[in-house]
TrEMBL record:
GO molecular function, one term: methionyl-tRNA formyltransferase activity
Domain of life per record: Bacteria
Official protein name in the record: Methionyl-tRNA formyltransferase
Pfam families (alphabetical): Formyl_trans_C (PF02911), Formyl_trans_N (PF00551)
Amino acid sequence: MRVIFAGTPEFARVALTAIHNAGHEIVAVLTQPDRPAGRGMKLTPSAVKQEAIHLNIPVLQPLTLKSSDIQQQLITLNADVMVVAAYGLILPQAVLDMPKYGCLNIHASLLPRWRGAAPIHRAILAGDSTTGITIMQMDAGLDTGAMLTTETIAIADDDSTGSLHDKLATLGGTMIVETLGQITELTPVPQPEAGVTYAAKITKAEALLDFNLPAQQLARNIRAFNPAPGAYFLAQEKIIKVWQAHVVDQSGTPAKLISADAHGITIACQQQALCITELQPAGGKRLSAAQFIAGPGVEFLKNTII
């Protein structure tokens, strides 16, 4: 099958590799323009572009798909289908209608729950017990198209956005290959009207831990914002990122230090307490609680309102 692939980050790269390994002819890859990254802010190609170059697939990086020039280029590719995964550009109706079998999206949630930009983060933040992948026939709406297939996976108690991302990326790659192989046999099913939620883009401000919230919520926040943007709190106006923590059945004045030892740094919350086991001071490296308190960590936190 002749495939145009549109995607940008690692989640999409996994699907691109799976489609290639399945023997489909990927006639072009669409991906976002190179962006500055790293300490030196050097222009860096997306994960999808790097993989496409490795696989010797032509790459297109338009700023928009609305121009007649790029649309004409896509028409000449004579694709059977376009597969889209975390691409980052809106597909106009002319592009949606172009391939023989339309445009298929690999979406990292069980639609209609968590339509939008950050379905993995939002599922963890909300305390969902399950999530999954939906392969969707795209339309002009925001993740509103009819569903071709879905598969559910459990969200483990210790899943972070990073670990859940990897599970879903692998599942998405497997499912899109299966879908392409059965595309003439599948019947699109409209999404139900009930249960619609939206996964708004994550902001750095959301990652600030508020110890006036229940510890259970903060533990979810820490997992949801790992690896990016990283949950954090302020101590003496300095940022301390938190990478690992769990809930303990203790109480005290919210935002006050309860204890600090090799097992963790425990801070009181509105309900219960949060025991932090891995953290990172501003400008420093990740440290275990034991490493942190071996330095000036305890005095830094002691009697300080976080």
